[in-house]
Amino acid sequence: MSTDPQTPESYPEPNEGPAEAEAALDNPLAGDPVALLQDELAQTKVHYMRALADQQNALRRAEKQAQDARAFAIDKFAADLLPVADYLRRALEAVPGEARETEAVKTLIIGVEMTERLMLETFAKNGLKAVGAKGEAFDPNVHQAVAQIPSDAPAGAVAEVMQAGFVLNGR
C-alpha cells in the first residue's frame, strides 16, 4: 500500500470506465483541445468543399436542362408540321408534266413551291434541318434503310429518298 494521500485531481472519474479509457488511448487528440478544434475544422472544410461541388454540379445540370429545353422546345410542334412539308413535296411531284404547261396549274405549282420553300426556311431558322439527300453517304444514325436497290450511286450512298428526314438541333 502506498502512503501517499490521494488528491481530488487524481481520483478516477465516476463515468469513466474501461471503454472510455481505451478510446482516449486510441485518440491521440483526446487531451489537446486545439488539436480537436483543428481536426473539426479540417472535417468541416471537407464537408464544405463537397457541398460546394454538389451545388456546382446541380447548377451545371440545371443549365444543361434549360439549354436543352430551349433547343428542343419546338420538338412536338415540328413533328406535327413535318407531314405538311411531306404533303407539299408529294403534291408537287404528283403533277404530271403535260399538266404543268397550263396557266392555272403553273400558278398553283408556283404557290405550292413558295409555301414549301418558306416552310423549310422557317424550319431552318428554328434548328430543324433536312437530312438524307440523294447521293449522301448512308449514316445509320440518321437514315432509315428500306431496301437495297441497284443504282448508279456509289456503294454506301443514299440511292433514293422515299421521305425526307429532319433533325432538330443535331438530334
Helix proportion range: 40-55%
State the major sheet. 2 strands, antiparallel
What Rg is obtained from the alpha carbons, in whole angstroms? Answer: 38 Å
Order of helices and strands: HHHHEE
What does the overall shape look like?
Answer: elongated
DSSP helix count? 4
Please render the helix and strand layout as text.
Blueprint: H1 18-26, H2 33-71, H3 75-94, H4 103-125, E1 128-131, E2 165-168
Antiparallel strand pairs: 1-2
Helix pairs in contact: 3-4
How would you describe this protein?
It is a single chain. With 171 residues, the protein is mainly alpha-helical. The protein has 4 helices and 2 strands, in the order H-H-H-H-E-E. Strands 1-2 form a two-stranded antiparallel sheet. The protein is elongated. The N and C termini lie far apart (90 Å).
Short description:
With 171 residues, this protein is mainly alpha-helical.
What are its keywords?
4 helices; 171 residues; 53% helix; 2 strands; mainly alpha; elongated
